[in-house]
Amino acid sequence: MNKNEIDKKPLVAALAGNPNVGKSTVFNSLTGMNQHTGNWPGKTVASARGLCGGGRYQLVDTPGSYSLSSRSPEEEIARDFICFGGAEAVIVVCDATCLERNLNLVLQTRELGKKVLVCVNLMDEAKKKGIEIDFTQLSESLGLPVIGITAKNRNCRKNILKALDELINAPKKAAKELKYPYELEISVENMLYEAEKLCGNQLCPRWLCLKLLEGEENLLKKINLFLNGRLYADSKLLKIAESERERLLNMGLDKEKVQDMIAESIVHEGQNLASRAVKFNKEEYSKKDRYVDKLLTGRLVGYPVMLMLLALIFYITIVGANYPSDLLAKLLFGLEEKLRELFIMLSVPDFITGLLIDGVYRVLAWVVSVMLPPMAIFFPLFTLLEDAGYLPRVAFNLDNAFHKCRACGKQALTMCMGFGCNAAGVIGCRIINSPRERLLAIITNSFVPCNGRFPMLIAVISMFFVIGCGKYSAFASALLLTLFITLAVGMSLFATRLLSDTFLKGEPSSFILEMPPYRRPRIGHVLIHSIFDRTLFVLGRAATVAAPAGAVLYLCANISVGGESIINICAGALEPIGRFMGLDGVIILAFILALPANEIVLPIIIMIYTAGNSIVQLGTLEEIKALLIQNGWGIKTALCFLLFTLFHWPCSTTLMTVKKETGSLKWTVLSALLPTAAGIIVCACVSGLFKLAEM
User: How far does the chain reach from its first CA to its final CA, in angstroms?
Assistant: First the structure.
């Protein structure tokens, strides 16, 4: 590469495609380590950019989208960047196993008049299923270059860059036009001359005419901005467009019908292209997938299989996390003495030493030792199900239940994300298009317990309910935990319906749920994605809020008023509320102080019971159980504790995420009050039943 090429500003190429087509794999293959992430301007959706081709191209990975007629924030971002983001070329990644559906996005991108490269990915899977694609035929029909790739193969990068170079260096030619119904073509023809004068080389005039007929106001405002205000200033084009919309309306074609006609024409053309270019050598190529789907989504078997898989994940997490958690706790608490010796050597005052070591460090050590091992097991297992294509089947199974609650079936996916981290589940609600249904999913996400609550649930279940099970105790704990999780899901559905009937009234919207083909999970990808993108990210966020919590906890335990610590005074004040709920004041206070991190509830309880002034390293379950019983715990207290662990206010990280996602303090407060009210009512009812039984 010569100096002139190095000094050149890289050409911008957009990477587009439906979800689950391997777009991220293509992006990573092309950019390698030359990439960075951030947020789209004014949006909370992640943006990934990177250099490739020796710095010739800046590749921008747009969010996965099915269409340029946006139905979600992600699709709107993809459309806006492809249309107005200054991309010289667009690389559209398609799935070879379901090419027909992917061609809709290709056809819409072609209409923009940009240089487009079509990369048909997953050719290895297509070969296994006996699918052959005539790329020459497809390329001629589309009027675009088309290549077949397998993104995970080494030669993928070279083939794409070669095709992209040829596309960029080739003279630009007029794109093939998709023909629409006669009524629309007449309208386009009547507007085209004025549109050509207005657009110049900035936009495709024919595409602008179609958008004017569709009349999507939000998009038209962005087009006007892109054209420096000339669209709204050009009254002649707008008058013709208004006249054409009026003419179509007189023919019974309102705005919605025009949009449907355009969409139907694109789908029909995609079907025709696929029928000519795709050949199925195995007529029953998807027979195995359909058989497995009958098993996993059937009315009789779907739910039991779902619960069994959930129980299995919990079992593996419980068994696998015990030893590393104990080892990590010993290591971190062992370092505490070394730090204390260092502070003494530096002559740090005792109060500061206690605040930083007994407060901040000890809470951090507890959070890390409790959270990291189960998360390092749970997240990869969960990601394996996601990578294999099972999670969309979970959404399919639960769609009917959420539909009856007047919510969106996609809420099942965000609920599943909440099992790992409620904050992550709240962010995941962006996949829901309807603002009302997105709010429903955000507010009710914390009804399912996050990974930080699992250790408490498992510990109390093991101490008070798994008795005499011996070597089967882990299995019994997993089954009981699954029952509690099932209760949490049921309560989430109930809360969703309650909100739908009160604060967030409305009818459920329909949505297209993609059922991706079953795939062999990519173990390396799963480990990297789950550990770095999920486990360490969530752990880092928890540690950030746990550190100041440790300082506050230490101060409350060591500052006395009238000879009694603040923490004991507060526990005494909360005692009546605790008794009403079948708990005690110490337990209620522990949940309040653990707002930054649920993981420290049990250590705080033990600290107060032992009259300590800092978090202590827990002993064996038998020792902890003896201490709890000594302080009045029984089956009733343990059961109410489990129920309140399921249903109480979200952690501070989740609340901050809710505030950021909704932009509303009102919905953030409701997100905290709703599960708390449910917990208080359920615990009070259980406590009342125990009192009746004792009479």
Answer: 89
